[in-house]
Amino acid sequence: MSNRRSRRCPGLAPGAAAAGLREAMDDVRRSVAVLAARVRDAHAARVWLPLGHSSWESYCRAEFGISRAQAYRLLDVARALAAIHDAVAAGPEMSRTRDTDPAAAAALDYGLSQRALIDVSSRTDAVTEL
Questions:
Q1: Which of 9, 14, 47, 81 is the most buried (most CB within 10 A)?
Q2: Taking every pair of C-alpha atoms in the chain, what is the biggest distance, in angstroms?
Q3: The whole model's pTM is what?
Q4: Burial of 39 by CB count in 10 Å (0-12 exposed, 13-18 middle, 19+ buried)?
Q5: Residue 44 reports pLDDT greater than 50
């Protein structure tokens, strides 16, 4: 197995290769977060109209090279990231059970499990970088 790894990443120790892959995946996550936020902002501002596009779908294809369905998935990502950000920003005041506070309930209603919120709240430094 180690032979296989060394062929894939010649000259790199397995630990260095794994660290490089983790860093690359972190870059991908940040890029997706930025793209999702930009798509969200474009959708909220209805920018396709002043730019001369007949529809949101036409705009997404021309400007981002993605389908309407993919754009809506990115909108879901942006909403989920906002919910995570809000939950982390709420800090220790937010309970780890379904809260009666509407904002806290909204964070959980974005499909975020309690386990995900607990995991993210323990990594606030990494989340705030996004």
A1: 81
A2: 57
A3: 0.56
A4: buried
A5: yes
